[in-house]
Amino acid sequence: MKGPSDSKVPRLTLARRLRVMASSGMATLALALVALSLWAMWEFSRPGPAARQGHDTTVILRHGAGLQEIASDLEDHGVVRSASVFMAAAQLTGAARGLKAGEYDFASLTSLRRVLWMIQHGQVVRHRVTVPEGATSEQAIGILMAANVLSGSAPVPAEGSILPDTYDVQRGSDRAAVLQRMIAARDQLLAELWPHRRADLPFKTPEEAVVLASIVEKETALASERPRIAAVFVNRLRKGVRLESDPTIIYGLTRGQPLGRGILESELQAATPYNTYRIAGLPPTPICNPGRASIAAVLDPPQSNELYFVANGTGGHAFASTLEEHDRNVQRWRRIERGRAASASSTQGSHSVASAGPAPLRGELHGAR
Q1: What contacts 26, CB < 8 A, 6 or more positions away?
Q2: Which residues pair with 59 in a beta bridge?
Q3: Nearest-angstrom CA–CA distance, 43 and 40
Q4: What was the pLDDT predicted at 352?
Q5: Are strands 56-61 and 102-107 parallel, antiparallel or unpaired?
Q6: Predicted TM-score (pTM) of this structure
Q7: Quick one: fold of 56-120?
Q8: CB 129 within 8 A of CB 144
């Protein structure tokens, strides 16, 4: 016959066993969670898949794509090993709410952590569109239309209204929006420079400054010459002397497209609103889109007495303060022209044929005279 204490022994043993089992289960679960955390950290940070071709992989994530579509695109392109793991990582880190569309360039072996960070912070591929100094507005729009990473269309803006520069763009950017950035950049530059202009300039508005800067831009390809050429034109305007700039003739004839030859006598005398051999003062609009240096040059030209310049045969110009000095510079340039013509004729041989029509009057003579 069992005593009273004997009936408690199995119950105590069972309870102890249950506690031991519970403790063991919790320990196992804890170990599993630790192992899972370690695996997740390793998976998150270890090198990703190697690029299938080359050293990187380009992926375009469309606007409006959700997390699942983004994850699938990345897996399909071999950027991540598992779309499910990417989705889980995005949700656990909170990045899922801020993933950004665009064109991404992932280097081979990029980790999941880095891929997620790049998309969360919009580290998209930046393309560049360059409008060179001196381009006309029509030429600038041609450059935008030829940039196949852009979309949409853009109207030809007013001449001189954009700032030539190199602009970063994203694939799919609207051309009209990029054009507005160029216009805003020019307006901002004028707003910065105009208040600090020289006090005695012979023009009254920022728009007139851009007109003169466009002529300076087309007169020389040497940045070092722009202030000096600006000073010549400022001096001529102040004295009421015509600018007599060849590029203004060309713009009146072709709207800035190269002639491909020298200017003819008939063209020199042609009555156009842009022919500064015939009109006094500035032409009605700019003849191109001048760059920063040319705009800055006309707003703060150096002090000088120079009124003339002509090509010097080395890519620059010879400057003069008097007509007599300028005539000597012109004669020197004419000798250089004749020497070049004779050299070209001798290399062509006896079978060369003279071109029909009137000969160019000015050849490579540029600048005021």
Answers
A1: none
A2: 104
A3: 5
A4: 33
A5: antiparallel
A6: 0.77
A7: Dna Ligase; domain 1 (3.30.1490)
A8: yes
Q: Are 240 and 313 a contacting pair, CB within 8 Å? A: no
Mean pLDDT, the chain, as a whole number?
Answer: 86
pLDDT, tens digit, 9 for 90 and up, residues 343-367: 777 665 543 332 222 223 333 334 4
| Per-residue DSSP letter, 40 | H
Could you report the per-residue pLDDT of 171-182, keeping only the tens digit for each? Answer: 999 999 999 999
**Residues 267, 253 contacting (CB under 8 angstroms):** yes
What is the per-residue DSSP string for 127-143? EEEE--TT--HHHHHHH
More confident residue, 283 or 36: 283
Dihedral angle, C-alpha 86, 88, 92, 97, nearest 10 °: 70
Residues in the chain: 369
CA distance 146 to 138: 12
Query: Exposure string (b/e) for 222-241, b if CB count within 10 Å is 16 or more?
Result: eeebbbbbbbbbbbbbeeee
Per domain, the residue ranges of the chain are 56-120, 127-191, 199-346
Q: Which 8-state DSSP code applies to residue 97?
A: G
